[in-house]
Amino acid sequence: MTVRVEIANPEGASLESRALLAACRGALGPALRALPLNRHSLRLSFVVDRIGRMRPRPSGIRCERVRFDGFDAEIVRPANRYRPLQDGAVLYLHGGAFMIGGLETHRPVVAGIAKRTGLAVLSVAYRQYPRTRVDGSVEDCLTAYRWLLRQGVDPGRIVVMGDSAGGFLTFATALRAARRGLPMPAGLVGISPLLDLDVSSVLMHRGPVRDAYLPERSLTGVSRLWTHGPADPALSPMNCDLSPLPATLLIVAEDEVLRSDAEKFAHRLDRVGVPCRLQLWRGQVHAFPALAPAMPESCEALSTIAGFVSTRIARRPVVARIA
Asked: Where is the Alpha/beta hydrolase fold-3 domain (predicted)?
């Protein structure tokens, strides 16, 4: 078995993505570097969340709030047809450095996934810093996955996915589910996923590539903030036994700071026999499908994700009862 590595858009970037790249390099990147990821970033979190609430709700969807103990989630479905959860579901875990973002900020990308797959998407507003450490965020995501299983959704008809920090949670949640004896979902999707809380190796091996906006210097010590101390190596998917994981799709910008970890992770999956497809996108920014889901490349990436979901849940269901 070999890792499927693809250059998804060999023809280069669209005008829209070039404009986004320029905006990230000229405005967002400098702003984030001026405001490093630390406890003061909570002010940025407030602003981002407020902007998310001001955005109009995407058309063509219906939303249903789900309440958990300590956090909320939202089921997003296509408005033109209702399919029960038991037909299949996507569990979406949003990004935002474990401290920014939520249901409102990521509703556009979640809506895009729901409309393309025709399935219900459970978007999770897991607890974030300073309410909890990363370990607590993982536990909330596992609670949401267990909830889907208790609703009677066959694990063979669930795909878990997330962007950036949500990509970390995607793999960490699946690995924790395996350790707890829960059945694996049908597949996993990481969009520009963070895979190791110790980011020093990323910065060491990234070579001459320059990320458009992710502030690499501030990433070096930020895991202490996320974990309230030194990061437990066992918490990072990169350091775990990956053999229990299902088939995986990784979507990464060619020039982003987390590319090297995605490549390393893909080869680690391959070594333990887990099918993995790695897509590299030229001229794109970190987590571009979530940041600008209406952009041509984002639409194409979301269609790739929808195809992956369709293929995975079309397999013979695995029946499992969850107590």
From this structure: 90-288
